[in-house]
Design brief:
This protein is of the alpha/beta class and about 400 residues long. Helix content is about 35%, strand content about 25%. The chain has helices at about 15-25, 50-60, 60-65, 90-95, 100-110, 155-165, 230-240, 250-255, 285-290, 295-315, 320-340, 345, 350-365, 370-380, and strands spanning about 5-10, 30-35, 45, 75, 85, 95-100, 115-120, 125-130, 130-135, 145, 145-150, 170-185, 190-195, 200-205, 210-220, 265-270, 275, 280. The radius of gyration is 21 Å and the shape is globular.
Length: about 400
């Protein structure tokens, strides 16, 4: 059992997952998160096949099932707001689906008793020495760690500090995405509705909480500047982009001023030649963000287990472990990026003709033949990485939150 220390940046999904597995490998883990607390809301994320094996091994599957969305069918409405066709919920929801905020809370609670969490701070610089990494923070005192893992998303501070400016690695796909919760004035019950106008798409659904709607927006955004905006600026941006949109959009936008869980960003991918540099390694969206439909959440959690497992297999030799980690993850990440590359065009086609074409293809998902093809495609991304047990990282045999 090693007593080495690891700093993990990011307390979303990848970070606490890494904390779980690194702890099981004997590391003392500190997680630093720029937000003042856990981030609420977020999109629904689903798990399939090999990823469900991972959740079982972590000991969190039962807890996740307690909070699963249990979503039913999705109705697609036309430009006039009338139903066009319905797609079975199973096409999207995988074996188990949960809201990102609920998943983040479960993973935090699962690791908080053995992990040091520091909220409201972020990494500002990294200096590697012969025996560790000296880290400075925006607010906290400098500290030294044996290893540093950047699990802090597309706009990773660790990646910027170790690898260089974000612009060197981020590829914007020409679309933006936003999400927030609103009152359920539509009366939806574990169902969702999709509506499109050229270059704009809305998907609204009611999950576990019957009085709330989860609103997801996708939009063409070739000349939109997303980053470094305040929450009020983000609200104004969404209102501006969807002004004049039909169906129930005006009513949904009325909830924006009170939406404290609003999320707005570009749909982007991250491409790097290497995911590690010395004692610093990247994980999840910080390393290989794929975008919607790329099975990013599941692969990030799988990657956390592989990272800790390879460190255990290499006896703590980070050079060997990081190389083996990347060797196992590179192909699955590439598959996820290929799946996610066309997500914007699918969710927000730019012309009425493309909406009709998308709908014709989408309608086929309700048929047995094409539904099975779509399931194969989504399962392919989820199963691109086989779950493998590592010596020293045996599956958890305890309930969540207990030693």
């Amino acid at each position: 059992m090693t007593s080495k220390t690891v700093l993990v940046s990011g307390a979303g999904i990848a970070g606490p997952s890494a904390a779980h597995w690194l702890h099981r490998g004997g590391y003392r883990v500190t997680v630093v998160e720029s937000a003042p607390g856990l981030r609420p809301g977020g999109q629904a994320v689903d798990f399939r096949g090999e990823q469900v094996k991972l959740l079982t091994a972590m000991g969190v599957l039962d807890e996740i099932r307690r909070y699963e969305t249990a979503m039913g069918d999705q109705t697609v409405v036309g430009l006039d707001g009338r139903p066009v066709f319905t797609v079975p919920g199973a096409a999207w929801s995988g074996e188990v689906e949960i809201l990102r905020g609920d998943l983040a809370r479960i993973l935090y609670e699962h690791t908080a008793h053995h992990t040091e969490y520091v909220f409201g701070d972020r990494v500002t610089s990294l200096t590697e020495t012969a025996d560790g990494v000296e880290v400075t923070f925006r607010h906290g005192a400098p500290r030294k760690f044996d290893l540093v893992a950047g699990a802090d998303g597309v706009h990773s501070g660790v990646r910027a500090a170790a690898f260089g400016p974000e612009q060197s690695f981020r590829r914007d796909l020409g679309f933006g995405i936003a999400g927030f919760t609103a009152p359920n004035h539509l009366g939806l019950d574990h169902t969702s509705v999709m509506y499109n106008e050229p270059g704009r798409g809305l998907s609204v659904g009611s999950h576990r909480l019957p009085d709330r709607l989860h609103v997801n927006l996708v939009f063409a955004a070739d000349n939109v500047e997303f980053h470094r905006r305040s929450l009020d600026d983000q609200r104004a941006l969404v209102a501006q982009l969807f002004a004049g949109t039909g169906w129930e959009t005006p009513k949904l936008l009325e909830a924006l001023p009170a939406a404290d869980d609003l999320y707005v960003d570009s749909i982007s991918q991250i491409h790097l030649e290497r995911w590690s540099k010395g004692r610093v390694v990247l994980l999840g969206d910080a390393a290989w963000c794929a975008g919607p439909g790329g099975s990013g959440t599941g692969l990030a959690m799988m990657g956390a287990q592989v990272l800790a497992g390879e460190l255990a297999a290499a006896g703590g030799d980070h050079v060997t472990a990081f190389a083996k980690y990347e060797e196992r993850l590179r192909k699955p990440a590439t598959i996820g990026q290929k799946n996610g590359k066309g997500s914007g065009n699918f969710l927000a086609p730019r012309t009425a003709a493309k909406i009709r074409s998308r709908n014709r293809g989408y309608r086929m998902l309700s048929t047995r033949l094409f539904g099975s093809i779509f399931t194969w495609m989504t399962d392919r991304a989820a199963n691109a990485l086989e779950y493998r047990e590592y010596p020293g990282l045996e599956p958890a045999r305890r309930a969540v939150g207990r030693s």
